[in-house]
Design goal:
single chain, alpha+beta, Aminopeptidase, 6-stranded mixed beta sheet, 4 helices, 31% strand
Length: 150
């Protein structure tokens, strides 16, 4: 577990989640995706993801889970060894406290420690607030992410 000191009364920490602990973060991912995926299907998908090059993390403030994120690891022809942040979410009442910047510093350090050359992510088109946040962290918009239902 990695700890961050927000102030003397509160402590932010990040802990890797195992399959048996997915119930800690599934409600947060459901909230992020506006409950568009049935809970049992989301759990099934996440169990499968954990068998791939994916790691899931919970963000704690003291003893409370206040957020989550996942990391995908791969090699891309255009980026080399890469880490993609996925479903980055902090509960609304804990946003705008500087936690996001601390979390991404953790992600960057973690990815570098695994030999990654690039960190990337996708953001919802309508989430303008996140676009500004990511650009302030040094991200640049390189393209669009397309989906097609099969």
């Amino acid at each position: 577990m990695t700890n961050f000191a927000e102030n003397r009364r509160m402590e932010l920490s990040i802990n890797k989640i195992l399959k048996k602990d997915l119930d800690l973060v599934v409600p947060l991912i459901m909230e992020l995706s506006e409950y568009q995926t049935e809970e049992s299907l989301l759990k099934s998908r996440m169990h499968e993801m954990l068998e791939q090059n994916y790691e899931c993390f919970a963000i704690y403030l003291n003893e409370e889970v206040i957020g989550t994120f996942g990391l995908w690891f791969m090699t891309r022809h255009y980026a080399g060894k890469s880490c993609e942040a996925d479903h980055v979410f902090i509960k609304t009442e804990y946003q705008n406290r500087g936690f996001g910047k601390e979390i991404f510093e953790y992600i960057f350090d973690y990815a570098k420690g695994k030999g990654c050359e690039m960190q990337e992510l996708n953001a919802y088109v309508q989430n303008f607030k996140s676009h500004k946040f990511y650009m302030n962290l040094g991200y640049v918009i390189k393209g669009y992410h397309f989906l097609k239902k099969l």
